[in-house]
Write a structure and sequence with these properties.
Helix 1 (2-23) packs antiparallel against helix 2 (41-78). The protein has 2 helices and 2 strands. It is of the alpha+beta class. The chain has helices at 2-23, 41-78, and strands at residues 27-31, 36-40. Strands 1-2 form a two-stranded antiparallel sheet. It comes from Neobacillus kokaensis. Keywords: Cell membrane, Membrane, Transmembrane, Transmembrane helix.
Length: 79
């Protein structure tokens, strides 16, 4: 049941981001360290969401790896 609520919540967030992105299609200037570029705001929003999700996923994977490593250590100490 918890997974269904998580899926429903994720779909609602994706829908809100999609609606917000489609409403904002005007071009904006993006300043990089080495220059500037004109990008549609929809691409900036979607790119930011994707990079944020990848960053959070990477942090989660590192934490899972650390927990698995600690679990193996404790299991070997108990044996």
């Amino acid at each position: 049941m918890k997974n269904q609520w998580n899926l429903l919540l994720a779909l609602m967030v994706i829908l809100i981001i999609a609606i917000f992105s489609v409403i904002n299609v005007e071009p904006v200037t993006v300043n990089y360290l080495f220059g500037k570029a004109e990008w549609p705001l929809i691409l900036v929003i979607i790119g930011s969401v994707i990079l944020g999700a990848l960053f959070i996923g990477l942090i989660g994977m590192v934490k899972i790896y650390q927990l698995q490593k600690a679990l193996k250590k404790y299991e070997s100490e108990n044996d």
